[in-house]
Design goal:
193 residues; 8-stranded mixed beta sheet; globular; Aminopeptidase; 6 helices; alpha+beta
Length: 193
Amino acid sequence: MPPFPELRTERLVLRQFHIRDAGRVRELASARELAVGTFLPHPYKEGMAERWILSLIDDYEKDRMINFAIDLAGNGLLIGSMGIVLDLTHNHGQLGYWIGLPFWNKGYCSEAAQAVLAFGFGVVGLNRIWAPHFKSNPASGRVLQKIGMQYEGCQRQQFRRFGRYEDAELYGIVRGDFESFRQPENGLRNPPP
């Protein structure tokens, strides 16, 4: 397995999670508002962050997933997570992400997603990347639209969260469409070859 990559954008550094990040992950992931729109557990209990980070390391080593910690470039403050669950048999991946509540509505998620898509297509060599989001979380859908993903449909009552069924909105993008969509002003400083 190659060393874990580091991606840089105008305002962000995307890097490997470390056990020392567990306290910050727990702090951010404990917000109920965040859990409602994502697959994060709630309440986020003691020890969950450590187990999750260790699972990310194992998943990377076994080519199942690559998940980046998202830091602010200026001060190294951890603000969220973004990754791709890999299906190398079919050459595609599922994008997943969360951003801590204090950092919403600042464009960080779209900026990180653009870099992760470029990595997935350019370095990993994926042909397709897709992502679901809860219909009740339209902000997540706007992120997917901003990075060039196309709406592919709705899975009605696909997930059960907090005692109610949630529709899943599906978005996807293939390599050729991403290469056509990607523009230098989208925030990717050093696109992969």
